[in-house]
Amino acid sequence: MIPEIGQFALVLSLILVLIQGTLPLIGAAKNIPAWMALARRTAQGTFFFLILAYGCLIYSFVVNDFSVLNVANNSNTQLPLAYRIAAAWGSHEGSIMLWVCLLGIWSFAVSVFSRHLPEEMVARVLGVMGLITVGLLLFLLFTSNPFERIFPMPADGRDLNPLLQDPGMVLHPPMLYMGYVGFSVAFSFAVAALLSGKLDATWARWSRPWTLLAWSFLTVGILIGSWWAYYELGWGGWWFWDPVENASLMPWLIGTALIHSLAVTEKRGTFKIWTVLLAIVAFSLSLLGTFLVRSGVLTSVHAFATDPRRGLFILAFLALVIGGSFALFAFRALRVGTPGAFKPVSCETALLGNNILLGVSCGTVLLGTLYPLFLDALNLGKISVGPPYFEKVFVPIMALVVLLMGAGPLIRWKEMDASSLFRKLAIPFGVSFIAALLLAIMLKGFAWTSVVLLTLGFFMAFWILSTLIVRLMQALSGDLAKKLRRQPASFWGMCLAHLGIAVFVIGVTVVKGFEAERDVKMAIGDTVEVGGYTFKLEGLEAVTGANYDATRGTFALIKGEKELRKLYPEKRIYASHGMPMTEASIDSGIFGDRYVSLGEQLSPESWIVRVYYKPFVTWIWGGCILMALGGLLALIDRRYRVKTHHPAPISLMRYTLTGNTVIK
Amino acid sequence: MKRKWVLLIPLCVFMILAVFFMVGLNRNPREIPSPLIGKPVPSFALPDFRSPDKTVTEKDFAGKVWLLNVWASWCVSCREEHPVLVKYAKEIGVPIVGLNYKDKYADGAKWLNNFGDPYTLSIIDADGRFGMDLGVYGVPETFLIDKAGFIRYKQIGPISEEVLYNTIIPKIKELESQ
Question: Are strands B66-71 and A548-559 parallel, antiparallel or unpaired?
Answer without folding.
Answer: unpaired
